[in-house]
From TrEMBL:
Name the record gives this protein: NADPH oxidase 5
Gene label: NOX5
Subcellular location per the Swiss-Prot or TrEMBL entry: Membrane
Gene Ontology terms describing biological process: defense response; endothelial cell proliferation; superoxide anion generation
Keyword entries, A-Z: Calcium, FAD, Flavoprotein, Membrane, Metal-binding, NADP, Oxidoreductase, Transmembrane, Transmembrane helix
Domain of life: Eukaryota
Keyword Membrane: yes
Upper lineage: Eukaryota, Metazoa, Chordata, Craniata, Vertebrata
InterPro entries assigned: EF-hand-dom_pair, EF_Hand_1_Ca_BS, EF_hand_dom, FAD-bd_8, FAD-bd_FR_type, Fe3_Rdtase_TM_dom, Fe_red_NAD-bd_6, FNR_nucleotide-bd
Organism whose genome encodes this protein: Bos mutus grunniens (Wild yak)
């Protein structure tokens, strides 16, 4: 048995020799500067200063690093000691980094690592990666890594055994570092600017429809401006500019409403025009036209003001400037000379609407300000008809379509009041609503609707993706993340012990629940309990059992009769259902804190189509969801599961199962890659049951032949290259291989730490050659920009969820 001892701290000059003299000088200068920012008056760093500088969550690693950095054992770290240690960690060889890692794990300094020391290290690793596991699972992880590394079964891990174990993970030692010590690494020099993406052929290939529409938009404005200006060239430049802008405004102020005709856009998605027009970016074009309207209106106004000023200065003009600008006396306009005062009113209304439409107003808890000021389009259209003699002609067709759609939407949404029949409060402040589905409500996977709950806010309508599959006939699922004023109010209203509205209309609730038991025969939803499948994982909380919709294929025995997702203990939930059907008055008493049966009035408007409607027409679809951005894919994956099970048949005698060879006519999918990125562990909980069922359905297929492949990422977890996480990630890999499931989520798919390496992800997708790749994303705009850039490099089609 050999230990590294003090040989870990070799001469730093040998390592800095890998850099040239200039780089070495800059690095030493940077370390010196950073040292002075945290060192005390005595020019040394004590343990408390070191902990703050490293920004570690667990003091174990800070203390271990401090002891190893303090080579003379004085209780403080000098600049020379810090430089020596950092030279090793940043520029050292893999073997020297391994020796340092061994010293960190060898807590008692005995020259070997026993099981208890390893458990202490792994426990600190869990805390650093924001992962919470039961003590039993921590013991299993410790034993898995210890037994794998202790080749001679001596009861301790030697340096050589740790080295051999780490060599099973290629590339880890070469890149081993301390992620929290980035403050000691000098900033990277600025690279040469890359060619702007808009100048690449891949960019134009993926944005042809945008470029075409923008070109038509600009060309039309130039044409309208030129025609109107040329007709008034005899009246001077100011009149020409005013008339040219006014003609453009006639088109913009009428067509801007067409971009928000959601029913028409949903219908267009089913036609060939969806391949030509950028229907997925209607809101961006609506915003663009809004900016254009404001700009043209200001230019139009300034031009008229200049013209009025010139007229007022003329000796032949009987009117003063203020009369031309604010009164009807000059007779300007086609309706009693009202062009000037209506123009002033229009500009004021437009500026008010523009100011209240900014994101700082909409997303800062003042949505109602945006909503009510945006309704000023009605008086604006009326004023525009009075202001311009030709505007009514431009508005005739768009206005008719607009008011027709609004009438249909209002009638459909307010015709019959629906009811929220069940509520589940899920981790990460997600509210899961189950709404009684109306008979004629037909939608496709990934569609969204507008929801209004009068008890929360009478006049507010908010868009939410439908997370249930269309094949689920009884209820509509919505998963709502608490991120704004309205969504927080919704979550808090159900978090109360006994919401006022949950016990209302008990007799009606009794009749509804009894009617829900009378289901037609054939393909029906059935609840499946997945609590056991994720046993031992934090994602399957011991007090929460998740039941998921599934569908019964032909020949399969029928179990159960309800199709609702419920969270609560298994026996209690079943008892609640049976008792609620007999006596709804007991519902409020039996409902747990996070699970409630209720009868809350609500209204919905929709459904409306999204880019995800293209998924089933894709050959190779890559679905990427970040956090709650998973909701549109929840519906899609459930629909895929339904269609998959619909093709599956089971012999009632021998229980042999087989699959039909044909596929649905509207489903061209050959492969689906599903990527879910979450910040913390709890965010996986509410959706893991569906993913478990999807994995179970593919259990008999080989890894290469699987139709659906899952990829899970947890960004708060440190990667294998970090000294504070390498042991934990090795143990998680070993235990996952042994138990055939991930310790974090309970899935067979291993949860990867950190963020995805998108280059590697897309390279793997491209190498599979399953057909044309289309990437569908729902999440933050910042990540969307990154993904769009990668898709352009690989010539993948990119679609983003927009409301």
């Amino acid at each position: 048995m050999s230990a590294p001892g003090d040989t870990a701290w070799t001469d730093s000059e040998g390592f800095r020799g890998t850099m040239n003299a200039e780089e070495d000088a800059k690095w030493l200068q940077w370390v010196t500067h950073q040292f002075k920012t945290i060192a005390g008056e005595d020019g040394e760093i004590n343990l408390q200063d070191f902990k703050k500088a490293l920004k570690v969550k667990e003091s174990f690693f800070a203390e271990r690093f401090f002891v190893l950095f303090d080579s003379d054992g004085s209780g403080t770290i000098t600049l020379q000691e810090l430089q020596k240690a950092l030279t090793l960690l940043i520029h050292g060889s893999p073997m020297d980094k391994l020796k340092f890692l061994f010293q960190v794990y060898d807590v008692d300094g005995s020259g070997s690592i026993d099981a208890d020391e390893l458990r202490t290290v792994l426990q600190s690793c869990l805390y650093e990666s924001a992962i919470s596991l039961p003590k039993e699972k921590l013991d299993q992880l410790t034993l898995a890594l210890f037994e794998s590394a202790d080749k001679d079964c001596s009861g301790t891990i030697t340096f050589e055994e740790l080295r051999d174990e780490l060599q099973r993970f290629p590339g880890v030692l070469e890149n081993l570092t301390i992620s929290a010590a980035h403050w000691l690494t000098p900033p990277a020099p600025q690279r040469h600017r890359r060619q702007p993406r808009l100048l690449t052929s891949a960019y134009w290939h993926n944005h042809r429809s945008h470029a075409l529409c923008l070109a038509v938009f600009v060309g039309l404005h130039v044409l309208l401006f030129a025609l109107a200006a040329s007709a008034y060239r005899a009246f001077g430049a100011s009149v020409m500019v005013a008339k040219g802008c006014g003609q453009c405004l006639n088109f913009d102020c009428s067509f801007i409403a067409v971009l928000m005709l959601r029913r028409c856009l949903t219908w267009l998605r089913a036609t060939w025009l969806a391949q030509v027009l950028p229907l997925d970016h209607n809101i961006q074009f609506h915003q663009l036209m809004g900016y254009v309207v404001v700009g043209l209106s200001l230019v139009h106004t300034v031009a008229h003001v200049v013209n009025f000023a010139l007229q007022a200065q003329s000796e032949t003009s009987p009117f003063q400037f203020w009369e031309l600008l604010l009164t009807t006396r000059p007779g300007i306009g086609w309706v009693h000379g009202s062009a000037s005062p209506t123009g002033v009113a229009l500009l004021l209304l437009l500026l008010l609407m523009f100011a209240c439409s900014s994101s700082c107003v909409r997303r800062s808890g003042h949505f109602e300000v945006f909503y009510w000021t945006h309704l000023s389009y009605l008086p604006m259209w009326l004023l525009l008809i009075l202001h311009g003699p030709n505007f009514w002609k431009w508005l005739l067709v768009p206005g008719t379509l607009f008011f027709l759609e609004k009438t249909i939407s209002l009638a459909a949404s307010r015709m019959v009041a629906l009811h929220i029949v069940e509520v589940n409060l899920l981790p990460s402040k997600v509210t899961h609503l189950l709404i009684k589905r109306p008979p004629l409500f037909h939608y496709r996977p990934g569609d969204y609707l507008y929801l209004n709950i009068p008890s929360i806010a009478r006049y507010e309508w908010h868009p939410f993706t439908i997370s249930s599959a269309p094949e689920q006939k009884d209820t509509i699922w919505l998963h709502i993340r608490s991120q704004g004023q309205w969504t927080n109010r919704l979550f808090e209203s159900f978090k109360k012990p006994e919401p006022v509205f949950c016990g209302s209309k008990r007799l009606s609730r009794r009749l509804e629940m009894k009617r829900s038991q009378r289901k037609p025969q054939g393909l029906q939803p059935q609840p499946i309990d997945f609590g056991a499948s994720a046993q031992g994982a934090v994602a399957s909380n011991k007090e929460v059992i998740v039941e998921l919709i599934s569908y019964r294929p032909e020949g399969a025995p029928w179990q159960g009769h309800e199709g609702l997702v419920n969270t609560g203990t298994k026996d209690r939930t079943r008892a609640q259902r049976e008792a609620a059907a007999e006596d709804p008055a007991l519902v409020s008493e039996m409902s747990s804190e996070n699970h409630q049966f209720c009868n809350i009035k609500c209204y919905i408007d929709g459904p409306y189509g999204t880019p995800t409607r293209r998924i089933f027409a894709s050959e190779h679809a890559v679905l990427i969801g970040a956090g709650i951005g998973i909701t549109p894919f929840a519906s899609i994956l459930q629909s895929i599961l339904y269609r998959h099970q619909k093709r599956k048949h089971i012999c009632p005698n021998c229980q042999h199962s087989w699959m039909e060879s044909g596929q649905d006519e509207d489903m061209k999918l050959h492969k689906v890659d599903f990527i879910w990125i979450n910040r913390d562990q709890q965010s996986f909980e509410w959706f893991v049951s569906l993913l478990t069922k999807l994995e179970m359905d593919q259990a008999e297929e080989t890894q290469e032949g699987r139709f659906l492949e899952l990829h899970m990422y947890m960004t708060s977890a440190l990667s294998k290259n970090d000294i504070k996480a390498i042991g934990l990630q090795m143990a998680l890999d070993l235990l996952a291989k042994k138990e055939k499931k991930d310790s974090i989520t309970g899935l067979q798919t291993r949860t990867q730490p950190g963020r995805p390496d998108w280059n590697k992800v897309f390279q793997k997708v491209a190498a599979e050659k399953k057909g044309k790749v289309q990437v569908f994303f729902c999440g933050s705009p910042a990540l969307a920009k990154i993904l769009k850039g990668h898709c352009e490099q690989f010539s993948f089609k990119f679609f983003q969820e927009n409301f």
